[in-house]
Amino acid sequence: MFVTPAYAQGIGGDSSAMFIQIVPFALIFVIMYFLIIRPQRTQLKKRG
Q1: What is the overall mean pLDDT for the chain?
Q2: Can you tell me the distance from the alpha carbon of 30 to that of 24, in angstroms, rounded to the nearest whole number?
Q3: How many CB atoms lie within 10 A of CB 18?
Q4: What is the Cα–Cα distance from 8 to 30, expressed in whole angstroms?
Q5: Mean pLDDT (whole number) for 27-42
Q6: According to DSSP H, which parts of the chain are helical?
Q7: Of 2, 19, 27, 38, which is least packed with CB atoms within 10 Å of its CB?
Q8: What global pTM score does this model have?
């Protein structure tokens, strides 16, 4: 009963609110890239 009005209000939100929700995921991806993916690629270049 209370969930439907709250969900309906959330749908009409600003695009800036959606951007704020995406920012943490983007930051996590960037951190993972610099801590895991980039060093792994440099090691593969040294071996290959």
Answers
A1: 84
A2: 10
A3: 9
A4: 33
A5: 95
A6: 3-11, 15-32, 38-47
A7: 2
A8: 0.56
